Amino acid sequence: MTQVSLRNVTKRFGTFTAVDGVSVDIPDGSFVCLLGPSGCGKTTLLRMIAGLEDLSEGELMVGGQSYGEVPAHERNFGMVFQSLALFPHLSVADNISYPLRIRGISKGECRAKAKELLELVQLSGIEDRRIHQLSGGQRQRVAIARGLAIDPQVFLLDEPLSALDANLREHMQIELRNLQRKLGVTTIVVTHDQREAMSMADVVIVMRDGKLQQIGTPMEIYRNPANAFVAGFIGVSNLLKGILDGRRFSLSGAQLDLTPEDIIPDGVAGPAVLSVRPEDITLFAGADGAGPHGRVTFIRDLGASVEILVDLGGAEVTSICSPKSRPDVDIGDEVTLEIHPGRSKVLAA
Amino acid sequence: MTQVSLRNVTKRFGTFTAVDGVSVDIPDGSFVCLLGPSGCGKTTLLRMIAGLEDLSEGELMVGGQSYGEVPAHERNFGMVFQSLALFPHLSVADNISYPLRIRGISKGECRAKAKELLELVQLSGIEDRRIHQLSGGQRQRVAIARGLAIDPQVFLLDEPLSALDANLREHMQIELRNLQRKLGVTTIVVTHDQREAMSMADVVIVMRDGKLQQIGTPMEIYRNPANAFVAGFIGVSNLLKGILDGRRFSLSGAQLDLTPEDIIPDGVAGPAVLSVRPEDITLFAGADGAGPHGRVTFIRDLGASVEILVDLGGAEVTSICSPKSRPDVDIGDEVTLEIHPGRSKVLAA
Amino acid sequence: MLAISFFRQSSGGFYEPVFTLDNFGRFLSPFFAKVLTVSVSFSAGAAAIAVAIAFPFTYLLVQMSGRAQAVALVFLLSVLSLSEVIIGFSWSTILSQTAGIGNILAGLGLISESRSFSPSSGALLTALVYLGFPYSVLVIYPAMSRLDPEIPEAARMCGASPVRTFFTTVVPMMRNTITGALILVFVFTLGAYILPQTLGRPQDWTLSVHITDQAVFQSNLPFASAMSIFLLLVSLALVGLSMLLGQTETKR
Amino acid sequence: QDRSLKVGTYGGYFQESFDTHIYPDFTAATGIAVESIGEPTGESWLVQLQAAARANQAPADVSMMAQVVRLKGASSKLWAGLDPKAMPNISNLPDHFVSTYEDGTVSGVGAVAWYITLVTNTDAYPEAPSSWNELWNPANEDRLGLISLITTSFLLEISAKTHFGGTDILDTEEGILQVMDKLGEVRRNVRLWYRDEGQFQQALETGEIPMGQYYHDVAGLAAADGKPVRSTFPSEGGVLDSGSWCVSKASTKIEEAQVFIDYMCQPEIQAKLARNVGTAPTVNRELTDLTDEEFAAVSSDTPPILPRYDIYEERGDWLNQKWAEMIAG
Amino acid sequence: MTRVLKSIFVALVFSFLAAPIIVVLGVSLNQPKRLLFPPEGLSLRWYGALFRESDWLGALQNSLIIATCAALLAVSLALPLALHVWKRKGWMARALYSLGVAPFILPPVISALGFMIFWISTGFYGRIEATIISHAIFLVTLPLVTISLGLQSVNEELLEAARSMGADARTTFRTVTFPLVRPYLVSGFAFAFVLSLNEYIISYMVSGFTVETLPIKIFNSLRYGYTPIMAAVAVSFVALAAIVFGLIARFGDLPRLLGAERASR
Ligand SMILES: Nc1ncnc2c1ncn2[C@@H]1O[C@H](COP(=O)(O)OP(=O)(O)OP(=O)(O)O)[C@@H](O)[C@H]1O
Ligand SMILES: Nc1ncnc2c1ncn2[C@@H]1O[C@H](COP(=O)(O)OP(=O)(O)OP(=O)(O)O)[C@@H](O)[C@H]1O
Ligand SMILES: [Mg+2]
Ligand SMILES: [Mg+2]
């Protein structure tokens, strides 16, 4: 039972509040991503869980026990640091078995365990290399292996993949996720890359300025963002200002009738914002359609998809389509927007 | 006439060849992106054009004249460095007018020109600030303004946007491209981000290990990659091994009939590789279709699109679809692939 | 411990523990004013010359490959380990009539007949520069190696010739480091004691020589202390200043 | 029986001569081993001895000290008072070579004497100069090497004897200042004010600095070595200086020291020194078996200039200051 | 053109730096017992003499003992000081650091006189311990600077990693911090050792001729224009320094040790 629970956890540095009253329950065995922009307090929160920072306020429970007073080196957690923090003066095997040696386990056993862990991360046979002889991806795996050496109760990772190049990163995401599925260890990963979070997580926790914004599965958050910040941070979102009247949403020169599938929070009426995903906007050449219309400002043809930017009376709107369904428009052309019904969310203005 | 022509340009550092016999013609007024993985020699090539490195071999022509012997400070080129290289001891205005002052232009004129350039990059009113008082995006623009101060013949930029965060970067891409359209100056930008290259460039030059791989418009390169490296580097590509016999391509357990629109280079036959883009693969649940079939290994649901990874007898294949057209499959399920006709390219094995 | 030793020497006299300001009084004579002027001018001159050579030298040094840099640094550090005694002896030999550069110059026909250049103010200055040079390189080196090499390149792309680039970007950006190096060499050469004796004429003898004379030859510790307290204050002020400057530069 | 003694003499050539010619015989004769110490210039050695004595240490038991320094040491009771009865041979010495404390114990015993003379490079000066007045000769501009320490150069005495008829003028401060003024005129002729003998000797031999004051004994050795160097007793006389054996009060080897000093006061030993080291004997000449020729090599019949040690002791700081100002110009 | 000028400039500087070394080297090869340059007749006898003549051997011994002990002492003073400064980054720590750096930056005559008076008044004047301690204090700057550099290069996350893996503060120091700064410790020792070996004025004023070191001996023999051994000593010391620093450069990152930010390629 290694459920991790935070109750009103707060961290202040001097007068600055880095983490502000966060309460979250992380279920046993789940894979959680802590997501947010730079400086929002992700690392600080993770470090508090690890015991590397004291809590200014609030309570931390692990497996039902209060952990606030347990020092870091008695927590039996595994941790992977952003810089990886591999010991440059030790060999790969010695790095991996460091936590075991600290616990007084014999050399032979350590060596056996290191071998086993290297197999787990698919790196057999490099036991005796030095850290500086490894590639980025290999180091990554050694760090993960070291974090798992003591069969940790909880596995913490701070932006573990940010130093890798795009291809390797996507590959490691898959590997990490599969590894966690196999071991079933409660895992918390910090990232500021929403794509990464959505690729890996069972549960995503979105933070901003030290405050919890939303917690949920990736799809819940994508479809039903709690606010404009979350909408913009998870994927691309077009935030269209207008007036909500019942199910009717009026925006510059056009009116939309929202369907029951569109999400309208209780109590919102009058000035409001409609969050629409780029893939839910289709463009038609010409200004004669029924929907709102504007002028194309930029086209980004990426091959696999085409992004078209439209100036909609001051607001910039992005539409994404596949190359096959690309409308025949060019920069400066007038276009009409069609917003797909049932896929938008209304947010309070 | 500021066409830039490279003839067999080569650069050696000791025994190591950083740029290897590159010949390219860059048309007057075009926007060119130099693209390639880290260490492939992009910066070196740009520095040779700038005159900051000598050519070990080959010839450099600018506007029809040989420039090999012209020292950097007599070239009248503008350049933006990766680190920006703004002068910390000078104010914003003094930074921008530095190239003018060097040319003996009066203080008053310099000031006026600096003002005008700051307007051009949308930064009016910060003339007297110090560099360390500016944000990343502002610095970027100051560096660009400085590079443009002398109305350069050629404008060179080395990864100008790599230090910016994702949103600002996409914004600056648009701005840079629009600025270049307005001024019409021949521009060469180094980047290792294919998305950036495809967003901005008229012409993309792909390099690898110091050698030219391909030159063409973004779409030419995406649709008709010269080799497997280019196919994989520009966008995501599935490289399927098989046997080509006329227009028939046989791969593990299936046969494809290629259409005339699929690109088959002359002389390729027998063992070959088919490059297929993820958006050109559709998956169907079940193993009973006609196409090749495999097993789903990972699903990455990003909201705007869904990536499904399939293990196809040892080869991993990625398919991308919109959430609407997502097949009803899960990890471990058997699927059949349909490859869209007319959008693939055959490569020599 | 250091504090105690400095503290003690300030307390009047060692031989007679009677508090007296006579020693400071004696020091405030026209003669010592002249000595002080001489000391300060030599150190200032040596600092200026040493840094003027060391600065462009270091600029070129950091552009070399890591290996060449390492070799040059090893050489510099070895030079650093030459004691003042040897430096003085060597320079007096080099500048002598029989074995020195006089012969080379005469051989080249630059002067009609080999002559000696030592002892003289010039000889002393040369040796002081020699003494201070490695230190100024070592002070300038870290800051110079942190200088983004793209900055001078940017200036070149802006149309500045290499020399102009050096004076419009590298020098102004390193102003504080230069000051720091100047002060360090200044203070350091202020302490030179053997060189002025072996290479200078009596009018070139600096305060350090007189301090040592008083302490070692005249066994007048109180007076020696009074002089060194004065020297100490001057040096401390300058060192403090250089540290302050060094700090503001690294803060950026 | 391993009795030993640390004996300090001026380092370098002096020390080497003692090492080869004197100590082995002494050890053979008395059974006392000698550890030879090379002293630096007198003043700094005095400071060292003083400081060491405070810490109850004796870097050397017996030291050869020049007269000024010996006086300074005596005034601070640095030297142990020796028993004259334990050293019968000191009766060979004239009285002025034996210094005593008020209580009759001996503070210093003359060890060796030497002359400071006018030396020249024979290539530059085919004719030997005859007078100290050559130092003032404008023709010698920038050609002299003189000793820069007032207490070892005795230029005051030289100047007084040459231009003021004797050293009596040095009795008063005004007189000293007058002499200093005269001496100031030499300054433009001086190329090198040296402290280090080696530096001057090298320059003299190569002709770089062709004239100066130097030690008669060392110059003689260099000449014998074939170097173009000569030492001349000027008509006014050479400066006769001497070194005395003094024993540090911190020494625990007083007895051995007395044996040593007594040994050194034998006429045979003094003659040996004259022959091998080139110093003038401190015992009366008649007691030695030196031939006239041998004696002439280390001394001269011209009446010597006798240093005024007293003024250095009385007006040490003042003289020093004036001297420093004088040579710095 | 400019490249040629640059090379000439660098070559000139190097020959300026090398000139004295060449002179001493030449003198040390003299056949006759004179300080002649250019040398008359080549011979290595003075190098041999350095190890045969007992007074030179004694001075060599003294120098080596002093340098070794002083460097050891300096390192053991510097390590705790550097650790303290590194852990507490307040102004107190900075002041402490400045205090450690000060003796080396001030004119050595002052330190020498200070030490001299201190030792005379405590009655330790003329003892080898006094020289050792004085040197250690004078040179403590060097290990202090190198160790501090080393500590700065220790990524704090390494220590946290150790903690998160179950190591307490002492274990962390023993298994992580110390092994990482060890090379810097060694080079601090080397710097202090080499400079102590060549230090003159402090040794001279603190124990002068009671504990004669090689530089003092050299100065004396120079004074009496006496023997090329002193040149041989100087050359050996320069060679020793070159070897020591060469080893540091070979096995460590010398440019970084001297404060360069970018590691050498
Ligand atoms: N030791 C500290 N003292 C003072 N402020 C701190 C400290 N550590 C962090 N902060 C501040 O707390 C805030 C949150 O920092 P934190 O490192 O948790 O952010 P983050 O979300 O991990 O950001 P990033 O994605 O950039 O790593 C930041 O504003 C940071 O400046
Ligand atoms: N001055 C130099 N001396 C030796 N090798 C060099 C030098 N400059 C570059 N190289 C080497 O040349 C190759 C190409 O370097 P270059 O900087 O051009 O790569 P790049 O394509 O710009 O890479 P990146 O995207 O990482 O900036 C690299 O392997 C690099 O190590
Ligand atoms: Mg963080
Ligand atoms: Mg590059």
From TrEMBL, chains A, B:
This is ABC transporter ATP-binding protein. Keywords: ATP-binding, Nucleotide-binding, Transport. Residues 4-234 form the ABC transporter domain. SUPFAM superfamilies: MOP-like (SSF50331), P-loop containing nucleoside triphosphate hydrolases (SSF52540). Signal peptide: none annotated. One of its GO terms (molecular function) is ATP binding. It comes from Litorisediminicola beolgyonensis. SMART domains: AAA (SM00382). It comes from the Bacteria.
UniProtKB/TrEMBL annotation, chain C:
InterPro entries: MetI-like, MetI-like_sf. The keyword Membrane applies. Belongs to the binding-protein-dependent transport system permease family. CysTW subfamily. This is ABC transporter permease. It comes from the Bacteria. It is a multi-pass membrane protein. The chain crosses the membrane at residues 31-58, 70-91, 122-141, 177-195, 223-246. It holds the Pfam family BPD_transp_1. It comes from Litorisediminicola beolgyonensis. Its main location: membrane. Residues 36-242 form the ABC transmembrane type-1 domain. It is found in: Cell membrane.
Automatic annotation (TrEMBL), chain E:
Residues 60-248 form the ABC transmembrane type-1 domain. The keyword Transmembrane helix applies. Its main location: membrane. Keywords: Cell inner membrane, Cell membrane, Membrane, Transmembrane, Transmembrane helix, Transport. It is a multi-pass membrane protein. Belongs to the binding-protein-dependent transport system permease family. InterPro entries: MetI-like, MetI-like_sf. It comes from Litorisediminicola beolgyonensis. It is found in: Cell inner membrane; Cell membrane. This is ABC transporter permease. The chain crosses the membrane at residues 7-29, 64-83, 95-120, 132-151, 184-206, 226-248. It comes from the Bacteria.
